[in-house]
Amino acid sequence: xxxxxxxxxxxxxxxxxxxxxxxxxxxxxxxxxxxxxxxxxxxxxxxxxxxxxxxxxxxxxxxxxxxxxxxxxxxxxxxxxxxxxxxxxxxxxxxxxxxxxxxxxxxxxxxxxxxxxxxxxxxxxxxxxxxxxxxxxxxxxxxxxxxxxxxxxxxxxxxxxxxxxxxxxxxxxxxxxxxxxxxxxxxxxxxxxxxxxxxxxxxxxxxxxxxxxxxxxxxxxxxxxxxxxxxxxxxxxxxxxxxxxxxxxxxxxxxxxxxxxxxxxxxxxxxxxxxxxxxxxxxxxxxxxxxxxxxxxxxxxxxxxxxxxxxxxxxxxxxxxxxxxxxxxxxxxxxxxxxxxxxxxxxxxxxxxxxxxxxxxxxxxxxxxxxxxxxxxxxxxxxxxxxxxxxxxxxxxxxxxxxxxxxxxxxxxxxxxxxxxxxxxxxxxxxxxxxxx
Length: 437
What we know:
The protein is an alpha/beta fold.
């Protein structure tokens, strides 16, 4: 245990998914509401919160490495390990690394009490998984940027054989309709122009007979809200109502992140994905039918146990057929306690490396093609932050592309632009009035 302190300054470092980013923001707001001052300089922080992700191999070891660096180069701060590694490892982290606080992703609303406990020289430990209680305990969000996250659903009941999320985040739970609508209105009042609805399986959200599509339609009625997005989705939860929302709700951006993981049915079954290649493609066809300009994104795992070269070729073929605008791809990573970690046919690292290179080359090709096809297109850009050049501002297109332009517009403005050039990761644009001049 470190020397007990009463911290005055704090720093939150988040790893992993957008849900962790959201959780990190809420912990920052929570500690600020207790009178602590946030600092970007980790070496100046009295309290450092490591908000961890457990989805990849060696995640736990990386946490211990970070703790070691803080002890060696910092000012011996109070250290809190939060998030999914905290949930999975529990008291073992405190025993091995002698941290002050260990708090799981469903209990971080208790962080102030755990800090007080650690200040008395006791271990602050809370890895309970209460249903939704943390949201009522979090402070109101009084000021946000032009884009904001809103968690609507947490946990997962799918039990994919490679994934630890059901064990670290718990069962699927949906927040209540009224609480979500009230928070969305508060976010807009605090400055948000775009809200991204979050969940481990966000489209599993439901409130009785109402699905995510119904919630999106309700948020569409909020004055001042210009854009709605959602992530991450599961193919099994793409309801008719949600697909129809893509047709009917202008504020719902034409972008869908729908992970498939593999393009071969035997591998999908071994992953316990509960969808087939064909059923996945039929969903995409239905979405494209109602929103022809939709940009598609996905997740892919290469080298799942037993994957043959021919089965990997099926994934490459799927990528060719879909033509993703964006995607995330990973080598299979065995996670302790998951069924896939004990399966026969573990793939050699060098084979996974080679397959990942081929898969990413195909994905990068399609992303570059999607961006190149955007040149000459007109659209609105939501300005999010300043760029590096004088007068340069950065924002996102409706299709979640990063766009830079020279403009007098301010952060939070929606600017009508024409896209004039495309790179692999970003686009250049000019304001429409400049393009017409």
